[in-house]
C-alpha cells in the first residue's frame, strides 16, 4: 500500500523592478517573520495549480509559475517546500488571507523589499535570501509529466 511520507508546500519568488515580494506571518506561538507567499498543495492539485491558488489567496496576484529556485525539507514536520520563480500575469499586490487558518489573521503585512532590505529582516529561508542578495538565483529545471510512460517518448 502507498503511504504518504511528506507533505508538500509551494512558495512563489517574484522579482519585480529589483524588489522581491514577501508576506509577514504572525503566529501566537512564535515571533512574527517574513516569508515568500505560498502554502500546502491540496490532493487534487499540481504544484503549479497550488501555487497559483495560493498567490491569489495571499497576494491577489495571478502568476505564471516558472522553474524551481530553492528547496527545503523540514524533517520533524515531514514537509518539503519548493520555491518557484513566478512572473506576474495580472493584478496588483495586496494583502490577502490564509483560509486554512481560522481565527485571528496569520498574514499581517505584504511588502516589496530590495535584496538589501531582506538581509536586515527576519525573512525565511535565510539561505534563499542570501542567494537573492548575491544575485545567485539559479533556476532548477522543473518538468511536468502526467504519467511515467511519457519518459519513454524522449530520445537520448
UniProtKB/TrEMBL annotation:
Q: Which InterPro entries match?
A: Nudix_hydrolase, NUDIX_hydrolase-like_dom_sf, NUDIX_hydrolase_CS, NUDIX_hydrolase_dom
- Please give the PROSITE patterns that the UniProt record associates with this protein: NUDIX, NUDIX_BOX
Would I find Phosphoprotein among this entry's keywords?
A: no
Would I find Glycosyltransferase among this entry's keywords?
no
Its needed co-factors are: Mg(2+)
Q: Which GO terms describe its molecular function?
A: hydrolase activity
Q: Could you tell me the keywords of this UniProt record?
A: Hydrolase
Q: Which residues form the Nudix hydrolase domain?
A: 5-135
Pfam assignment, any one: NUDIX
* Family that this chain belongs to: Belongs to the Nudix hydrolase family.
Query: What is the protein name given in its UniProt record?
Result: Nudix hydrolase domain-containing protein
To which species is this protein native? Kosmotoga arenicorallina S304
Amino acid at each position: 500500500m502507498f503511504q504518504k511520507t511528506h507533505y508538500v508546500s509551494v512558495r512563489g519568488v517574484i522579482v519585480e523592478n529589483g524588489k522581491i515580494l514577501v508576506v509577514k506571518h504572525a503566529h501566537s506561538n512564535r515571533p512574527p517573520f517574513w516569508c515568500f507567499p505560498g502554502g500546502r498543495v491540496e490532493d487534487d492539485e499540481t504544484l503549479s495549480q497550488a501555487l497559483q491558488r495560493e498567490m491569489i489567496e495571499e497576494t491577489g496576484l495571478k502568476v505564471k509559475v516558472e522553474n524551481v529556485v530553492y528547496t527545503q525539507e523540514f524533517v520533524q514536520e515531514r514537509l518539503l517546500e519548493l520555491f518557484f520563480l513566478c512572473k506576474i500575469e495580472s493584478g496588483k499586490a495586496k494583502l490577502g488571507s490564509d483560509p486554512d487558518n481560522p481565527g485571528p489573521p496569520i498574514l499581517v503585512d505584504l511588502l516589496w523589499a530590495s535584496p538589501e532590505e531582506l538581509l536586515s529582516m527576519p525573512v525565511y529561508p535565510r539561505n534563499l535570501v542570501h542567494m537573492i542578495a548575491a544575485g545567485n538565483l539559479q533556476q532548477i529545471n522543473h518538468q511536468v509529466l502526467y504519467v511515467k510512460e511519457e519518459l519513454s517518448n524522449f530520445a537520448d
